[in-house]
Amino acid sequence: MDQHQVWHEPAFDKAANAISPFLLRSGIYLFLISFICLFYVLNAPLLLGHYDLGWHLAAGDIIRERNAIPLHDPWSFTHGDKPWLNLSWLWDALASATFQYAGFGSLVLLTVACGAAIVGILTAISLGYGASAIAVCVSVFLACLLYPAYEASPNMYLAVSPNTCTMLFCVVFYRECLRRTRWFVLPVLMVLWANLHGGFLLGFFVIGVFCGGAVLRGAWAELRILAFAGIGCLAATSINPLGWNIYAGAAATMGHFVQGNIGEWLSYYHNMEMPGSIPGILYMLAFVALELRYRNSRPIPLEPRLMSWLFLILGLYQFRYIAFFFIFSTAPMALHLSRLLPERLTGRDVRGALLAAGIVGLGTLPMAYLNVAPALALPPMLSSEDAGYLRKHLAGRRVLNNWNVGGYLIFATHGTVPPFVDGRAATAYPDDLLRDYFKLVSWEIDEAAWDMVLDKYRIDAVLWVKAHEQLRRFLVERRGWREQYTGAYETVYVRPQSGFAGEAKRQ
Q1: Fewer CB under 10 Å: which end of the chain, C or N?
Q2: By CB neighbour count within 10 A (0-12 exposed, 13-18 middle, 19+ buried), where does 503 fall?
Q3: Residue 462: phi, psi to the nearest 5?
Q4: Are strands 490-494 and 482-486 parallel, antiparallel or unpaired?
């Protein structure tokens, strides 16, 4: 190279020549992980917005105190003899210990770390199929911004909740099945997954899709190994304190009538938020258009295509699965984009630029976290003042609470104010109780249903959404209840003839 060429060599190329090949190869990972994690950190308050986080932490406290998993609900007054099948017991215990020693910030950082692992695995898969660096950056960046679904809070899929374990394990299973060399690790991973979250059933779905791909390709040896891996995973799920009852716990949510009343199990259309959902809709339309345009393209691998289409269909039917579509469509989208991008972009070595940008992003992360850390807390649906009032005036009382505040009530009072219902749904509560409760969840008041529930369960007080003006009119104006306490989001109504209303009023 002569002096003129050296002088006019681009700055990034000069830097790249002085950097080790390993660092250059790592540039795309550093870039994607740092900037996507920066996005997650800036949304840290949302990561703590899952309605069930409160009861998960309280359950973890009990498990650690007793060194055992409670088999019956220790908090509510409505559980009857229903066994409690806590499928996330291990996550609860780990989250409880983490929160006790390091607070909400540590829970957020662990969740962001799971997100970083997903980014790294998807990047490795896409690069492994030969997609260009720029195409991989675009596809992974878009998918990892979209799948958490923060615009649909609290139905989020990268949050401080056991759902995040299922997201990560699904990607790990996907990666190991694609590698076709380490299927023996899947049963080992399944032991951990089955104790962290009921979503472990999706592991069998991933293996099943790859079995279907092996059949379509006539790869019988591969099919045989996958079948053995699936059998090993089935055996691995029995290694848990609940035994085979974990399948009863999974059945208590999947296919149960309660699904029709929980947002994440409803359709994508039901959960759309405008304009927040527009980027996701455009991504889905782009994927479908590219897949139809290049439907006979051999470079697009079969299994990622199958996974993408299956989860797209499932996601439109039930919102919780749309996150998996974004994840599994990453490799096909990267390959489609590689085909569409100009050759000068796909062939250009941008590793030095990505490495430099990634270092900048990595340096920004600590500052972003320190900026949001002081505000990290549970959502203010039930404030400390609200909890103090409830503990003082409603301890041991029969309180009819709305579903969304149930987990926070458990966390704030640890059962001193027994909840009526919470997000554990059919894993902890009898079906009859749930049917009675869901008759109440409407802005229009069904007076007969309310009267039946209030009398049947001998309700002393109602803890309900402050904005439900129709309920206030019904209880206060038509049934003579007293509006005893009003917080920022919740209101307490007290039955007058119980004698509690006057006592609370005097206090």
Answers
A1: N
A2: exposed
A3: -120, 125
A4: antiparallel
Helices (H), 218-277: 220-236, 245-251, 268-271
Burial of 280 (0-12, 13-18, 19+ CB in 10 A): buried
**Per-residue pLDDT at 363:** 92
| pLDDT, the chain, mean | 89
User: Over the range 85-110, which residues count as b (16 or more CB within 10 Å of their CB) and which as e?
Assistant: bbbbbbbbbbbbebbeeeebbbbbbb
Given pLDDT bands bounded at 50, 70 and 90, which one contains residue 2?
A: very low
CA-CA distances (angstroms) from residue 18 to 15, 351, 353, 365?
5, 12, 13, 26
pTM for this predicted structure:
0.90
CA atoms within 13 A on the CB side of 247: 9
pLDDT band at 431 (very low <50, low <70, confident <90, very high): very high
Q: Is the pLDDT of residue 6 over 80?
A: no
pLDDT over threshold 90, residue 108: yes
Number of H helices, E strands in the chain: 25, 4
379, exposed or middle or buried, with CB in 10 Å at 0-12, 13-18, 19+? buried
Does 10 have pLDDT greater than 90?
no
- Measured CA to CA, the distance from residue 221 to residue 216 in angstroms comes to 13
Nearest 10 degrees: CA dihedral of 233, 234, 239, 241? 130
